[in-house]
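Whether sequence alone determines local backbone shape is best considered at the level of individual chains. We regard such an encoding as a compact summary of how the chain folds. The sequence in question and its structure tokens are set out directly beneath this paragraph.
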Amino acid sequence: MSDYTGEVSPGGEPDRRTAGALEITKLAVDPQMHNNCYLLRCTDTGDQVLIDAADEPDRLLELIGDGGLTTVVTTHQHWDHHRALADVLRATGARSAAGREDGPHLPVAPDVLLDQGDSVPLGALTLDVVHLRGHTPGSVALVLRSSDGSTHVFTGDSLFPGGVGNTDKDPQRFTQLIGDVEERLFGVLPDEAWVYPGHGGDTTIGAERPHLAEWRQRGW
């Protein structure tokens, strides 16, 4: 895990890390939006899950390779996070999953609608679903506790280095999002938990925890 930085650029090489039975490959797509896509693989079984088929389906399919794909999880309904979804599903036969409130707004109806407390299987591993309301009504994060004791959190656009996701200056949406993030992520995860957002670089729960009060005060 020591060589992984999480720093990737559209058109550039992916970054990869292994943690116990979990292999994570992070790929950036679209030079304008700089979306992150995450391919997760259980090394015990070979099963793979893709988080956000954001764009550039050919690159995603190359990444997936011949190992097949069990599930594509879309973290939320915004257009930039699912432009390759239909192509990837068609090519792989994978099932699709998304938050219940956002699922109807995707270009392909999800096979599975996700709620708080649900899980998505990844071979011998499990992705726990955390519903984070505010950026969109049905945004979800995925928490994976690997066999080596490490914790990995895929937050879509709900949590970034330096703050929560965009709530369009709506005080009610901001209060909902930061409340969910504080209770459902910071309230239960260790400082060492690694955070993988939908755009840009990674962070950890511990790096962001001291700033929660500051985020509440500034209102974004």
